[in-house]
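Database export, one record per block. Field names are fixed; values are copied verbatim from the stored entry.
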Amino acid sequence: MNTKLVKSLAILLTVLSLFAIAPVCALAADEELPEDVTDTTPVLVISSDSLTVAMGKTIQLTAVVSNVDVQPKINWRSSNDRAASVDQNGLVKGKFEGKVTIIASTEVDGKVLEGEFTINVIKRGNLLQLLLSKHQVLSYQYSYVDDYYYTNDKDAWQHNFGFGKIYDFVSPYLLLEYDYVRVFFEYEGKDWMIQMWKGQYGMIFYGGEIGVYNRPHSDKGVHEWTMYNCPDEDDWLKMEMTLYHQDINGNYVEEFTREYDKYWWCTGFKNGHLRQEEPADELRLEGRITFKSKEMCDLFVSGLDACGFSVSDSKDLIGLDQYYVEDVDVYFIWQNISSAENTMFIKAGLGTVISVLLLPYMPFILPYAGAFLILVLLASILV
């Protein structure tokens, strides 16, 4: 994770995108070949330049059979014709919002070959989604698969900067309200900090993060001005993260999953606003981190214990704010524990002072404030 100002800029991009709602476009995708086939085995592969289609719009799928002299006839069908239809040329038309599997099949030398391709049918996309689905901006991208924004930490300019407690302290004054947990330990001559966040990021996004940071070992204590480095690639850790959000009925619904991969900064942000920002316990973060060694794993677990987490007896029955260790993997569920300072009373006090100071200028401010509120309302409706 890096300076929270970047996330505020992402929010600004979202607001600007409301002025130009565009048809949906999506990430390029190709089906990978199965690992158990030889170089001469016929394989049916489906490809498309999009993972999504807007309602009423069409996208083209292409099916190719490898290792044949002549391409056979392809038959197409949809798993749900009500949501999306497909003709015998592979042209898919979106009808109703949802996920649809498009199946292509053919026969080669008496053997039936099939391939599947999942399409996301959505109402409409906005300019920000259109832009971030194919290009990153300030290291942010968009995934149509689970409809969320994320940081491409593999190619993030933020990696050139570090992270310290001071960022979390000032973030509430930049409209960033989140819970966080920090785990500190020393390993291989370095001081490590692994931090988790979940909460409200500005007026439009909520989400979660896991960040890995280190620095050369120092005997000095950690304070607000202590800075950690974003680690070199050798110190990235394999992890995965799933964010759940409690609906109005009290059920926790999965919002997105960042796949198991090497990260130094694993993030995900959804459009929306929490009912209660402080604390953000209507969000639940479920994760897994794979450490370099058993020693490193044990040091992290000791840090979780210090934060108030407890150990679970079963990997399949991990409770809230519990963890389970399997070799060098730590599985955990985080919801209620937080080290974040309650800043609501400070912001309320500052708000009162600022309001008194601005009172004489209200006749000039109100027209602009009204226009801003209209933009926020449009954001909640259209984004």
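Remark 1: Residues 344-382 form one domain.
Remark 2: The chain is about 20% helix and 40% strand.
End of record.
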